[in-house]
Amino acid sequence: MGKEKIIKGIPAAPGICIGKAYVKGKETLQIKPRRISKEEVSKEILRLEEALSLTREEILELKKKIAQEMGEDHAQIFDAHLLFLEDRAFIEDIINKVKKEKVNVEYALQESVKKYINIFSKIEDEYLRERTYDFQDVGKRILKNMLKQKKAKEELFEKSIIIAHDLSPSETASLKKDKILGFVTDIGGRTSHTAIIARSLGIPAVVGTQIATQEIKTGDELIIDGSKGEVIVNPTQKTLEEYKKERERRKRLIKKYSFTKKLIPTTLDGKEIKILANIEFPEEISQVLDVGAQGIGLYRTEYFYMNRVSLPSEEEQYRAYKEVARRLQPLPVTIRTLDLGGDKFLSPIRVPTEIQSFLGQRAIRFCLAHPEVFKTQLRAILRAALEGNLKVMYPMISGVEELIEANKILEEAKKELKKQNKRFKEDLKVGVMIEVPSAALISDILAKYADFFSIGTNDLIQYSLAVDRADEKVAYLYEPAHPAVLRLIKNVIDAAHSMNIEVSMCGEMASEPIFIFLLIGMGLDELSMPPSLIPKAKLLIRSISYKEAHEVFKKVSGFSSPKEVEDYCIKELRKILKEKYEELAI
């Protein structure tokens, strides 16, 4: 056994798994050019058409298999593959090479695939770049069919951790799911196909390691920590024991807190604080229900758009939102409309480069600039709202004009549905995400036009303090307890309550124990957080009183530094929780 080594990557699916590595080989087919005569050209083109037809049949079969095993949402990944097969520019490029250069069709195909991959790899948009591997997968499949090669079926004889440069959708479909402990890949991000599949299967995954296939050999002992994004190769006995203990500890915690599922988060003096869940993918709904969340406070829809090469239709979105609404019924589900830009990009639309800025044409600005994209989503939400308790929320509203304009487009969507005789919910509740300082300062005005507020503290803090939270050089200035941030939050809560509307919070601040304590004292109605953090948050709320929390807020509202605020909150929370502090507040 070699020396222990840690490989870092992107956390893609949470959990710890321990087992042997199985390294999937990277298949490389190098085709050499072969000169053909003028008479052979039509025969070569016919071979291409036959291979394209056979590849289409195979992909449709794979799509059907994935739909049966994992659901329609995952099967839609193959729509991109089918689009590549119908791309006339790609096909004509191959045919022209055969005609002009008089070369064999498999060589022409190989060179065209290389050319397109080179174009894709230079695109700045991460999500479009990731589609390179879908294109590569299709190219490889066409070539094998052209050469009449049968793919050797890879067999896993024991439960293993799959190591691969990347796992294409078709490769994943061919794997036996009951033999997989986890995934590790060289490339990919949180929205890559491998990451989505891993979350769906509930197994740990680390992606984007760059070097996994170079550093790991089949048979190596591995530990994957999908929450941290770490892969430990050939761990020492000490490391192995530590992770086994940690894995058992997490299992015990899940079991220990299972009783909280039916608990209502009510303070000792009777004030109920609703706790909802943040989700990005429909696969997370089971976990939301398992922890007893009181609904979904933030359903991020941009990931539904990103992992594809074409925009989702109204019908596709309707089916997805309807499924979430039905499964959560009668609990509320707040759908945030497209929040693109900053660190999230949309592949199928040509967008200006300023979308990459946190301060550019993003979120509601993007939607107002692309009303047809926005309207398609709104029509789908309006229709799905009949199936459950759906609400809609606009991100990054900075002024009342944007809110009025967004609502006008919502009314247009309703008129279009009426014309088409499609049923929809007329009185859909409309909320505003308060994540821009200007919105926080005019929240009293915005409250006249909204049914509810949700405070997005991640952006509100960085915009208020002029701190890019992704920049390590200034990360120390990102202070949720900054007096300016607390004043803005309190202003929003008071403005909402003056108009009798509820206010929620869905940023990271909403799941941190000392801030939960403080926010309750400020009068916040709802907290929305990752599902895994809900059990402890419920117990914390049931261990404190609103009166105590309010007194603490009144005291810290006169403090001048974030450290003073945090230190005082910790001291008071320790005093209240006593022996429960270590368990519930850390």
How would you describe the overall organization of this protein?
- This protein is α/β, with parallel strands linked by helices and 586 residues long.
- The chain has 3 domains: 121 residues, Phosphohistidine domain (Glucose Oxidase, domain 1), CATH 3.50.30.10; 109 residues, Enzyme I, Chain A, domain 2, CATH 1.10.274; 322 residues, TIM Barrel, CATH 3.20.20.
- It contains 25 helices and 16 strands.
- The strands form 2 sheets. It has an 8-stranded mixed beta sheet. Strands 9-10-11-12-13-14-15-16 form an 8-stranded parallel barrel, surrounded by 5 helices.
Search tags:
586 residues, alpha/beta, Glucose Oxidase, domain 1, Enzyme I, Chain A, domain 2, 25 helices, 16 strands, globular
Task: Give the oligomeric state.
Answer: single chain
Radius of gyration: 26 Å
Query: From the helix content, strand content and strand pairing, which structural class follows?
Result: alpha/beta
Unreliable segments of 5+ consecutive residues = 342-359
Q: What would the average pLDDT be, to the nearest integer?
A: 87
CATH topology description of the largest domain:
TIM Barrel
- Give the C-level CATH assignment of the largest domain: Alpha Beta
Largest sheet: 8 strands, mixed
Number of domains: 3
| Number of E-state strands | 16
CATH architecture of the largest domain: Alpha-Beta Barrel
N- to C-terminal separation? Answer: 37 Å
How much of the sequence lies in strands comes to 5-15%
Can you list the strand order of the major beta sheet? 1-8-7-3-4-5-6-2
Tally the helices: what do you get?
25
Please state the overall shape, judged from the principal axes of the Cα atoms: globular
